[in-house]
Amino acid sequence: MIHKRGWYEPSILWAAIIGRPSSGKTPAIDTIMDSLKPIEKDEIEQFDAALKTYQAEKESCKKGDPQPEKPVCKRTVIGDTTTEALCLRLKENPQGLLLYRDELAGWWVI
User: What are the pLDDT digits (tens) for 53-74?
Assistant: First the structure.
């Protein structure tokens, strides 16, 4: 959303499923999370390949040569994390992330 030139606001969605124990919250969440797992797995495989290439290029560089750019693992979902690690992941993934917490109380410990 653009308010004025150079000013951007991200879209943020906060959601919580609230219910008694054994009311079916976890299966509902698992449906969403299971659809994201293949995307996450593919990104990790691409990162692993890029990291091997990076390490090979770095070893073959001679002193004074420009260093290759270290690859970044693109993420879709993150779970238990510190505020500092979350900031780093957001910097590496400007398109955004899904922060998943299994318990609502997890939102207050960030």
Answer: 999 998 888 888 888 899 998 9
* Domain extents in the chain: 47-53+70-105
Cα 72 to the chain's mean position, in Å?
Answer: 11
The count of C-alpha atoms lying within 13 angstroms of the C-alpha of 56, restricted to the half-sphere facing its C-beta, is 6
Instruction: Report residue 14 CA to chain centroid gap.
Output: 16
Name the amino acid, one letter, at 72: V
Measure the CA–CA gap between 41 and 24, rounded to whole angstroms. Answer: 26
Residues making up the chain, counted from first to last: 110
Lowest mean pLDDT among 4-8, 34-38, 62-66, 98-102: 4-8
Two structure tokens written together for 31:
């449906």
